[in-house]
Structures are given as C-alpha cells and as structure tokens.
Design brief:
- The chain has about 270 residues and is mainly alpha-helical.
- About 80% of the residues lie in helices and about 0% in strands.
- Helix 2 packs antiparallel against helix 3 (about 65-95), helix 5 (about 105-140) runs antiparallel to helix 6 (about 155-180) and helix 6 runs antiparallel to helix 9 (about 220-225).
- It is elongated.
- The two termini are about 25 Å apart.
- The mean pLDDT is about 85.
Length: about 270
Amino acid sequence: MSVRILWQATAAEWGKLWSVRSTWWCLAGAFALMVLAAVTLGGASVTDALRAAEDGGPPAAPVVASEAAVSATIFAQFALVALAMLTITAEYASGSVRVTLQAVPVRGVMLAAKALVLAPVMAVAGVLSGAVATAAVHALLSIDVFGGLSVLPPGEVARDLLGVGVFFALVSVLTLGAGAALRSAAGTLTVVFLLLLGLPLMLLMTGSPVAVAASLRMPLFAGLAFMGSTDNLTGGPLPYSAGEGLAWLVAWTAAALAAGHAVLRRRDA
C-alpha cells in the first residue's frame, strides 16, 4: 500500500513540476550559466597557460574540455537550487501545501515523492548542460588563437559529466530538505547560498587550519572533490579522495532531508 501511495504521490509531483513556467526558466538559466561559465573558465585557464609559456614557462598542456564544465557548476548550481526550492516553498506561499498534505497525509511520503522527482530531473539536467558546455569549450579552445589545446578523452568526459549530474541531484535534494524546514523562499535561498558558497569561502579566507578543514568538507567543496575539480577556488586539488567527497555530500543532503522531515512532522501546514 505504501509503495502504491508513494508511486501516486511521485506521479502527482512530476505533473506539478512540469506544469509551471518556473521549471523551464530555471532549467534554461542553468544551461546558460553552465555554458557561459565553462567557456569563460576554459578560455581563461588556457590563456594563462599560453602566456606563461611565452614568458619562458613550460609548454601549455592539453586541456580536457569537460573540466571547465565541472568548474562551472560553482555558478550554474544556483539556477537549479532555485528550482528545487520552489518545489516546496511555492506551495507554502500559495497555501496549496494543505491540498498536497490532504492527498498525501504521511509527510515523509510527500517529501520522498518530491525528492524522487527532483533527483533524476536534476541529474539529467546536469549531464545535458555539462555536455553542451563541454562541446562549447571544445569548439572555442580548438581554434588557433587558443593553440588547439582542447581534448575530449571519452572516459574522462563521461566521468566528469556523470559527476556533474550526481552533484546537481544531491544539491537539489539538499535544497528541498532546507525548504521543507524553513518554508520560506527567501530564507531557504539565503541559507542554501551561505551553505554552498558564502560560509565555505569565509572559512577558507580565515586561513585557520581548523576553519579551512571544515570549509573543504562543506557541500560545494565536497562535490568538487567528488568531481575531481582542480579549478575550485582553492588553487589545487582538494586534499581527500572523490569517494570521501561524495560521502560528505551525501551526509549533508541526508542531514537537510532529516531536518525537513522533522519540521514537517511537528508543524502544521
């Protein structure tokens, strides 16, 4: 019975997600941000390498185009954060959450249904936007002015694109949990922005070993470690494995969902 109710709730959430214009606008924004950021970051990194070579440094090495797409997730993630946030906070703003909870009175099932819709949609959006961004970077860096340094090794590209998809899926579910706990679009956006970017950067800038270690294990840097990014605001590879990065990201996501579920159970709509 519970599986049937979850399936029906998931189908209803799928219909709600695609019935509003904000879904399409947020996805379009994510694609645009991925491409623009990836092209900018890829072009800048190759330009710096070419200038260093001209000044007597080592020859510029080939660049895997998908690495720029991985780095671009720092910026593109917020378009999908906005979409994930709206799937829950818009219902509280309009009062329609009462109808949702009357239809699905088990609040954990309602939250699980939203997560089961968000995660695959965001994963596909991450893979597709990463692929478009990778193609754009490869096209740009293949021209003579950039030395034709772009390469597309299939194994590395596939790993990078799958990593982007997993990262976007988990960050979106994390945002869903925060939205369920906070119930306010402004509050959710503020808290998630601070968690993903503001607080990690502030801790990083302190230079304190304890603060830096904490910063590097917050969701953004954990995700970048999982994706193997070297252009990640820290000046080099992150000091732990991709598996540990994924574990930290999953832990943050689970904590946000647990907080959202706890608030849903204790407070009326």
